Amino acid sequence: MSRKITLQHASQSEPVSVSIEKVAEGSPNDFHVVLGDRRIDAEIELFGSGAGWIRLGGKVVRFYGHRQGDDIQVWYGGKVYDFKTVDAEGPKGAVRGAVLLPELTAPMPGTILRILVADGDELSAHQPLIIMESMKMEMTISAPAVGCVKEITCSEGDLVEMGALLIRLEDSGGGAGDE
Q1: Tens-place pLDDT, residues 118-166
Q2: Contact 170/147 with Cβ under 8 angstroms?
Q3: What contacts 167, CB < 8 A, 6 or more positions away?
Q4: Which of 31, 67, 144, 179 has the fewest CB atoms in 10 Å of its CB?
Q5: 3 state SS for 14-29
Q6: Would you tell me which CATH number, out of the four given (2.60.120, 2.40.300, 2.40.128, 3.30.70), belongs to the domain 1-89?
Q7: Among positive and negative, which fits the CA dihedral 131, 132, 137, 142?
Q8: How many angstroms separate the CA atoms of 170 and 31, rounded?
């Protein structure tokens, strides 16, 4: 698997090219990550819904990535980073996070401020579902695709950990994703 994407960070004046390549078929978690002209060997494990951990130079750090259209948010090392996709190459489903799974999880530890849907609601792609707060920042968690709310597993006011299950979704026959 090889995936190349060009990202623009809000604080950077120039976009940076990011490539992720699997080291070998027998090493499921070993990757070469290339950031611009810098190559890093990393061990990455995905848990689903965009959550996982990465080992760089002996240090293990949990992360969560969420993509909505061209916007990508990454929670890494206690901070949230916002990126905009400038260009992407490679297999479409290679690095897509929550878009492929029927469960939405908390992208960071925080408090559930508002739940904007109910069990059984039909959803459109990118429809806001939950607003949560973490480190005095609000984040809207949106539907990754057309579907239906199967079950809401949190309540307003709940304190949740990163990766906590918030909503189970089911396909309503509208397709797998809307990017």
Answers
A1: 999 998 877 889 999 988 888 888 887 788 999 999 999 999 988 788 9
A2: yes
A3: 103, 104, 117, 129, 130, 141, 149, 150, 151, 152, 153, 154
A4: 179
A5: CCEEEEEEEEECCEEE
A6: 2.40.128
A7: negative
A8: 32
